[in-house]
């Protein structure tokens, strides 16, 4: 759409600007302020320069949490994306099955995050949970509060349960937008199922898949509530991801300087990925006529 | 069984009935029969997936209908003596039901604020080019993507200095951090789908901008406003970290009430499960109306 150049449009953006400035810029400035200062209490601060950043980047605690978070993000992507594509391909395209599938699959997306944690905390318990009880009765020793491996599996399965539907729904939206003519052409050429997937469906899903990958990466990168409720970051520190560690440091121990430095580094990483996301959103598929809006 | 066999019979009977309504129908069935066996079982994949999704929710629901003794004493797949006692506890104990009232209060406040300020901004982004528009649009996105953990502590200090701690408006304003960008992006997606000629025609017809916006434009993007409001509601409803940090007693959300119960020693699993089931209900109620927009909402209006 041709847009008119009109700098008065700024007035329409002003309320948003004021509100987000209040809820984002001021808090971020506080963080920046803390990240370069030190305190002995009594509200007396003095300049610390880049001390906290140097300490942070050298600290094993931060590096471990970052590595854990990256492993977590990449493992859930490796499971959710192929699984989501597969389920979307198998979903019905017409009839009563479509709304039923959409509604039931979307349900986990709308469950409050702490309740997702509670559901899996209960579900995995060996004494009262269906999953834990069944596994232990099958002779598999499963206890997510003691065994780091079991804790990791629980957290990953929980995330797959919670978010695979998002990938499914996005891929499905991409699939139904493919005109029937493409499939007819493929049938005339005698294309195999794999060829149809590889040369018609996958290219047509490229945009939604990129969105799905980025959304899942970002959200898993800042995951807090669900693993916090299930494992509390334990056993030991085995499921302490970046957000859990940051909250522990900032609100638990009140280490303002290090926590602020960590916040900024964390935020910078997110910023880089946001930029990739933005570029994808505004550029990929922009050359083709993309049905925006309805 | 009869339902399954019926199509086959009608397919077989094509020879006997060469004409009429049946032919078109039976041709469809014949086509279906020609498909390879593997394709006839594709319905199994979504079915199994949905069972996997429903099992944990069923388990929570199952527990909510049991007494605490029944939960702890034995293992059963369904409640032997279904009881609504757990739900009664929540509806009669103020420390439980006030959690729901608090949550709904700040969530509704937040939804109203977010959509109200996002509407003009989204219109500006979808219709005009102005100085720094792309940077601004990107900056909004970074706030949607910002980890709440980063903001928990500064929010606490900011709202303390305004004396707003433990008020509903504090949580509503704090949740604007991610909901305003969300609403702007979703609404911009919907508004860009409305042709610009409509605006121009309305101006030629003598409509002033506010009148045009309310009388003509808003009805056109009514579904978009609904979707944006739904997602603001949802994301504010599911958020816990910021809501818990900013409240102590008077505005404490239901989610925080639940975590408190988890950390206490004498766990009442039945009540906890009932509270969990009740938090799923708002989403489950409206899900039917937004079923075609869920992917769109999560993808910030870009699908």
From TrEMBL, chain A:
It holds the Pfam family BPD_transp_1. It is a multi-pass membrane protein. It comes from the Bacteria. GO terms for biological process: transmembrane transport. Residues 66-277 form the ABC transmembrane type-1 domain. PROSITE patterns: ABC_TM1. Signal peptide: none annotated. CDD domains: TM_PBP2. Its main location: membrane. It is found in: Cell membrane. Belongs to the binding-protein-dependent transport system permease family. This is ABC transporter permease. It comes from Pseudovibrio exalbescens.
